[in-house]
Design brief:
mainly alpha, 2 domains
Length: 107
């Protein structure tokens, strides 16, 4: 049986197909789950297919997690809707200022 990492880190489409074929020996529920949920989006998680899409060199979701962390650190969990939007737009403005600062510093 192919390990999950072998399928995800396939270096060519031929290698990917070989590991996918090895899934035929697994239980039918696992096989169906992978074929329905993961095979259609293989460009997002299989190494040999990720290089065919525009990803600007990003291979993780660290930037997104960082942004979510900033929102969570400022936005109160139990705030009213009005307070939430006040805090939300404050974070958005701060992120825009940070982006503009980085842009100007690179120029």
């Amino acid at each position: 049986m192919a390990r999950n990492t072998e399928l995800a880190y396939s270096r060519s489409s031929k290698e990917y197909e070989k590991h996918l074929q090895a899934l035929e020996n697994t239980s039918s529920s696992v096989k169906e789950y992978i074929k329905i949920n993961w095979v259609p989006i293989k460009e997002q998680w299989v190494t040999c297919f990720k290089d065919n899409t525009m990803n600007l060199g990003e291979r993780t979701n660290n930037r997104l997690e960082s942004t979510f962390g900033k929102f969570k650190s400022v936005c109160s969990k139990y705030a009213s809707l009005q307070q939430f939007f006040h805090e939300f737009f404050a974070v958005v403005a701060s992120l825009r200022n940070e982006r503009n600062h980085h842009f100007l510093m690179t120029m």
